[in-house]
Structures are given as structure tokens and as C-alpha cells.
Specification:
The complex is a heterodimer of chains A (256) and B (421).
Chain A (H helix, E strand, L loop, with lengths): L2 E7 L3 E8 L2 E9 L5 H15 L8 E5 L11 E2 L2 H12 L5 E5 L4 E6 L5 E6 L8 H11 L6 H6 L12 H14 L3 H22 L6 E4 L6 H11 L12 H12 L1
Chain B lengths: L2 H9 L5 H4 L2 H13 L7 H18 L5 E4 L6 H6 L2 E3 L1 H10 L3 H9 L9 H11 L8 E5 L6 H12 L3 E4 L7 H21 L6 H26 L7 H4 L3 H6 L6 H18 L9 E6 L9 H8 L2 E6 L14 H10 L8 H14 L3 E7 L3 H4 L2 H10 L3 E7 L9 H15 L1
Parallel strand pairs in B: 1-2, 1-3, 3-4, 5-6, 5-7, 7-8
Helix pairs in contact in B: 1-3, 3-4, 4-14, 6-8, 7-8, 8-9, 10-16, 11-14, 17-19
Classes of the chains: A alpha/beta (256), B alpha/beta (421).
């Protein structure tokens, strides 16, 4: 029996995945907070406890995500680009493109034969088009971020909102609210802005079908629908899109 | 290399404008640099630093009429005139190391210089306004490649009420275009000579072209040696030599530095002193690099075992000059730049470099506001993809550290290395 662990330290959440003989057996998702080794440790312990395993059972650990360098007990560090690709390849080996929208960044990854990354593109330094963008807007709109997807699906059209800058978009949202635009239309507009930005990234890498989506924003059906409309395809959605980086990391740990 | 901390400490805190114009301070800085041979990874880079200090001293101490030029101007014309050339864009890169950025940016902002423009020019203008750059007696500039340079340098000329000479370079090269550019160069040569009270000595100009040819030969020898794997010089170190390409062709010392560099490269190759312990990946670098402290080359070369084996900016794109026909010859040089005109020229040059240097990946540093370089990235990516060469477009800014996100850059570079691994 080979037990490996993957830790994905993102800006908003830290994920741990435990893989036993190539199969996902448990996972845990914790808020990153101040981040670093303590939260990675807690996520790992929680995931192991759910699987009924002990730390000493783990053969190898791979850390990924922005916080990957702050996990001293990881045996290896791999970028989230490779890890998301590996996680998706595990689920659907014929996937050609992965769209990952996380808290701090969004990326589009092109996969080649054997799930190898052949190209990728990430958002620029600003947070527009990421989970953080939606979080800021949810706060401005005084809605729960988890409700945004459902609310946006009720709108027949979206309000036009800038997709270039979170600060500008936030002030646009405040103006739209002042004009009396329904919250649902504003949220739909925000989702469309995110989708527009991600689709332009997908074009840069020459996206191809089938396309899978990972990251916490894949739980937002409003963003998923907006992306599907623009790409003209159905997106493959993992049951737990947030943990695909951690899963990929755990699978790579087994390959060391 | 800890050149800049040494310079900063030599000039004391805070760095005073007057210090740059003081013969005593400049002499002191040169002496310190001269004694710091071991602080430089290459004897040639030490020699280059000394030559650059001498050149700056000529400009700051006014040892001749100072003529500002942009980095794409054929400097042979200026060396041939016997004036003191000063390249504000190159000096801006040095200003980053000297910690002048914040003050200079504030000064430029106060002159309506937008933050969406090229920060080399924003910084250069700011340094000039703040009094850190030597006062020009004339300004020359080409219209090709860099679209902001003519406006930015015209502003400097206007501020000092001095002549501004624009070399209008057509997008395509042909006999008529060559004659058109040559006529302008000739007119500029005599007009500058008259305005600056210099003898328009065509023999001195021919000599500058001969020196330029020697430097060209030297750089070609260096480039041929750098093609052989494994690399003996890291891209991090080789980038420093770009200064010559951008400011010093036609000078008496450009060929001397290249020759020294060549001898060192050859010696290290014979000794088996490689750039990295085990070369895993060979990379080509397009456009320029950031000049503030950053981890880019540390991630690629120290941690990743990849080596930037060549830089696009070190590419010799022109044929040997003919000193008997200096103006026509320099016109041909200007018009043969691979970045001029349709993108096919740059594509062909990049493909050639990929092949010559046997690289597996290409990194394009997309400097903020540099449209001439960034606008073609998609087609370059496509062309390289067809050749099976990986391409990374790294967004950033060469001089404005505010636009550098260390975590995001690390992820892109490591992801790129994983893709290549």
C-alpha cells in the first residue's frame, strides 16, 4: 500500500488530499488565513484522520499553490499548473484544456498526450477574473458568495461591467446599485466579466475540447454557464473542483 | 555582482545630484570600481563597467558636447563626430540600481508622463528633470521600433531649448528608403557638427565605422562560442554586455571588451567551467530583463538548471559597414533591424536564434508599455509552437518594481520549467 498526500496552499483556502494506491481516499479544505506550515499541517492531519490514517503512514508529500515554498515537511514542490493538469488527467485522461479559477489567480492549461502540460497562461498581476474579484463584489453587493451563482441564473441579462480592474469594477457595482439595477443582473454582469477575461486567456493557449474546470470558482454555476456560453462547450466539472490541485499533487507524490 | 551597493555607498546617502558632476567623486567611484575586480564575475564585465564610468564621466563633466540618443540610433555617427553620446534609456537602467526610481517617477508624473507609457522613458525624463542626468547640447532619435522615444526625447530637447534631430526610418527597406535615411544621416552629421562647433571630419567617421565593424566581429565570435553546449556564461551575467550594443558601437573600446569577453569564454570552455553544474534546459531571452533586484534568473539558472544561452538584443542583425560610404552604410544598418516592419523579420530572426543556439524554450519579457515588442507575442508563440518550442510570455516591467509580483513570477517560471522538464 502506498499512501501519498498533496497539499495545495492557495490564497483563500488550503487543501489536502490523500491518495492510497492511486485512489483518492479523503480530503480536507481549510481557510488559509495567515497560511504557512501550521494550516498545511492541520489540513493534512484532518484529511488523514478522515481516512483513518496516521502521519507515519504517508510515504511522500507534494506541496503546491502559492504557499508551496512554506511547507518544510513536503518532499517536493510542484506548481499548481502541473498539479491541476495531473488531477484532471486522473479523472478524464482525454481532457485537452483545464480552466482553473482560484482565489488569487486564474489560469488556462493545455494538455497534450499523457496529460503533459504543453502550454499555459495565467492572469496578470491584478485580481480581476479571480475568486478574490468575486469575493470583493459579493461584499459590495452584501450577498453571500455561495449564493452568487444561483442569483445570477435568475437574471435575463447581465449589466455591463469592466473586467480589467477590481477597483474600477467595484465602483461600477456601487453606481449600478445606486441606479437601482437588480442585484441579479449585476452579479450576472460580474460573471460575464470574469468569463470574458478567462476566454481571452483560453484563446491565447489555443484551447481545445474537452474542457474541464477546476478551482473554487467552478462551484459558481453562474460563472460556469457564462464560460460555457462563450466557449460553446459543456465544461467538465469535478465533484470537488477545489481539491484538484491537491489531488494532482498527491498523485505526483506517488510518482516520485 | 554588488556593483550598485558599492556605488551607492561611494556616493553616500542621499545620493546628491552635485556628486555626479564632481570630478572628485567620479574619480573616487572609478578607483573603487577599479579595485573591485573580484566583485565581477567576468574580467570583461569589470572592464565594461570601467569604460561605462569613463563614458559617463565625459558626459557628467562636460568633456565635450553631450548628445543624447535613443538606444536604436546608430551611435557610429556620434563617435564619428567626436561628441559625447549619452543614452538616457540605458542610464535609466543604471538609475534603478542607484535607487533613484521613486524620486524620478514623481518628477516625471509631474510632467504629465503617464504611467501606461514605457517606464524607461518615464524614469529617464524624471532623472533629467530631477537633475541626475547630464545636460544635453543636442538630442538625436530614430523613429523606428520604440514609438515613445521621439516624443519623450523631444520633450527633453524642448525643456533645454536645444536642437532635436529625428531620423525618420521607413517601415520597409529598399534602395529608395536607404537613400532617404542616408540623406537624413548626412544632413544630421553636418548639422550637428555646425551646431556643436565640431569639425565634420569624415575620416573620423570612417574610423568609427571601422571600429564598429571590429566590435561586430567580436560580438559574432562571442555569439558563435555561446552556441556550443553546455553554456559557460549564465544569461544573468551575459545581459550586462547589452550595454555595448545599445550605446557603444563606433567607440574605441567596444571591440576591446568583446575581445576580452571572447578570450574568457574560450578559456572557461577549455577549463570546463560551465554556467551551471548540470545544464538541463537551454533558453532564449526575448527583449530586455528587469533591472531591479528580482529572482527570475535565480529561479531559472540557479534553482532550475536552465540557462539563458542567448539574448535577442545581442543579435547582430546588420552586415559589415562600408567606411567608404558611411551614411549609406549606417542607413542599411538601421533598416536591417529585425524588429522593423512586418513581423516576419523578427520571426525569422527568432527562429534562426532558436536553431543556432539549440534552445528548447523562449522567454519573452513583455515590458509594460513596450508595444513594439509585446504586440507580436501571439504570432511568435504560434510560430515557435509549430517548431515544438515552448514559449513563455512573462508580463512585467524592466524598471518599475511595483509591477513585479514575486509569487506569480515564480509560479510562471517554475511551471514553464516543469513543462520543459
Amino acid at each position: 500500500m502506498t499512501v501519498t498526500a498533496g497539499l495545495d496552499l492557495g490564497s483563500l483556502s488550503t487543501k489536502a488530499a490523500i491518495v492510497e494506491d492511486g485512489k483518492l481516499v479523503s480530503f480536507a479544505v481549510l481557510p488559509t488565513g495567515r497560511g504557512g506550515a501550521p494550516v498545511a499541517e492541520r489540513a493534512l492531519e484532518e484529511a488523514l484522520a478522515r481516512a483513518g490514517l496516521k502521519r507515519s503512514d504517508v510515504d511522500s508529500i507534494v506541496a503546491t499553490g502559492y504557499g508551496r515554498i512554506s511547507v518544510p515537511f513536503a518532499h517536493r514542490r510542484v506548481t499548481e499548473i502541473t498539479c491541476h493538469a495531473r488531477g484532471v488527467y486522473h479523472l478524464w485522461p482525454d481532457t485537452a484544456t483545464v480552466i482553473d479559477i482560484g482565489g488569487q489567480d486564474s489560469k488556462v492549461i493545455r494538455l497534450g498526450p499523457g496529460g503533459k502540460v504543453v502550454d499555459f497562461v495565467m492572469n496578470e498581476k491584478c485580481s480581476a477574473g479571480t475568486g478574490r474579484f468575486l469575493e470583493v463584489m459579493a461584499r459590495a453587493l452584501e450577498v453571500n458568495i455561495e449564493e452568487m451563482g444561483e442569483l445570477s441564473l435568475k437574471a435575463r441579462k447581465g449589466a455591463a461591467i469592466s473586467n480589467t480592474c477590481t477597483v474600477f469594477a467595484e465602483s461600477e457595482v456601487v453606481s449600478l446599485l445606486a441606479e437601482g439595477r437588480p442585484v441579479e443582473e449585476i452579479i450576472r454582469g460580474l460573471h460575464e466579466a470574469v468569463a470574458e477575461r478567462v476566454v481571452s486567456m483560453a484563446e491565447r493557449v489555443g484551447w481545445q475540447e474537452p474542457v474541464a474546470m477546476t478551482g473554487g470558482v467552478a462551484k459558481n454555476l453562474g460563472v460556469v454557464r457564462s464560460l460555457e456560453e462563450r466557449l460553446g462547450v459543456s465544461l467538465r466539472l469535478p465533484e470537488e473542483p477545489q481539491i484538484m490541485g491537491a489531488l494532482g499533487a498527491a498523485l505526483l507524490a506517488a510518482e516520485v | 555582482m554588488d556593483l550598485y551597493p558599492k556605488l551607492r555607498s561611494a556616493l553616500a546617502e542621499p545620493l546628491k545630484r552635485r556628486a555626479l558632476h564632481s570630478p572628485l567623486v567620479i574619480k573616487l567611484v572609478r578607483q573603487i570600481l577599479s579595485a573591485q575586480k573580484r566583485a565581477f564575475p567576468w574580467e570583461a564585465s569589470h572592464l565594461l563597467a570601467l569604460k561605462a564610468i569613463d563614458q559617463a564621466a565625459d558626459a557628467f563633466l562636460g568633456r565635450g558636447p553631450v548628445v543624447w540618443h535613443n538606444v536604436f540610433f546608430p551611435t557610429e555617427l556620434l563617435y564619428g563626430l567626436g561628441v559625447v553620446p549619452f543614452a538616457p534609456e540605458a542610464a535609466a537602467a543604471a538609475a534603478v540600481g542607484l535607487g533613484l526610481v521613486d524620486e524620478a517617477f514623481r518628477a516625471a508624473d509631474g510632467r504629465w508622463f503617464g504611467t501606461d507609457g514605457c517606464s524607461f522613458h518615464r524614469l529617464a525624463l524624471g532623472c533629467e528633470v530631477a537633475g541626475y542626468f547630464p545636460r544635453p547640447q543636442a538630442v538625436v532619435c530614430t523613429s523606428h521600433l520604440c514609438d515613445i522615444a521621439p516624443q519623450s526625447l523631444a520633450l527633453t530637447a524642448a525643456r533645454h531649448d536645444i536642437p532635436f534631430h529625428l531620423l525618420d526610418v521607413p517601415q520597409r527597406a529598399g534602395p529608395e528608403e536607404t537613400r532617404y535615411v542616408a540623406r537624413q544621416l548626412k544632413e544630421m552629421f553636418f548639422s550637428l557638427a555646425e551646431g556643436l562647433r565640431k569639425e565634420p571630419d569624415t575620416e573620423r567617421l570612417a574610423e568609427a565605422l571601422r571600429r564598429s565593424n571590429e566590435a561586430r566581429e567580436g560580438l559574432l565570435r562571442v555569439s558563435r562560442l555561446r552556441r556550443e553546449p553546455p553554456a559557460v556564461i549564465r544569461g544573468d551575467e551575459a545581459h550586462g554586455f547589452l550595454y555595448i550594443m545599445l550605446t557603444s558601437f563606433g567607440s574605441p573600446w567596444a571591440a576591446v571588451v568583446y575581445d576580452k569577453w571572447y578570450e574568457e569564454l574560450k578559456r572557461r570552455r577549455e577549463q570546463g567551467r560551465w554556467a551551471v553544474p548540470r545544464e538541463k534546459i537551454r533558453l532564449l531571452w526575448l527583449h530586455l530583463r528587469p533591472y531591479y533586484a528580482n529572482d527570475i534568473f535565480k529561479i531559472l539558472e540557479h534553482e532550475g538548471g536552465a540557462v539563458v544561452v542567448f539574448e535577442e538584443m545581442n543579435h547582430v542583425y546588420w552586415d559589415e559597414l562600408d567606411p567608404r560610404h558611411p551614411f549609406l552604410s549606417l542607413a542599411r544598418k538601421v533598416l536591417s533591424h529585425h524588429g522593423l516592419g512586418p513581423l516576419e523579420g523578427r520571426l525569422g530572426a527568432v527562429k534562426g536564434m532558436v536553431e543556432d543556439f539549440g534552445v528548447q524554450g523562449v522567454v519573452h519579457f513583455a515590458h509594460w508599455g513596450c508595444r513594439q515588442s509585446t504586440a507580436g507575442a501571439a504570432l511568435i508563440q504560434q510560430a515557435l509552437r509549430e517548431q515544438g518550442i515552448a514559449f513563455l510570455n512573462l508580463d512585467g516591467d524592466c524598471v518599475d518594481r511595483q509591477k513585479y509580483a514575486p509569487g506569480a513570477v515564480r509560479t510562471r517560471l517554475e511551471g514553464f520549467l516543469e513543462l520543459l522538464g
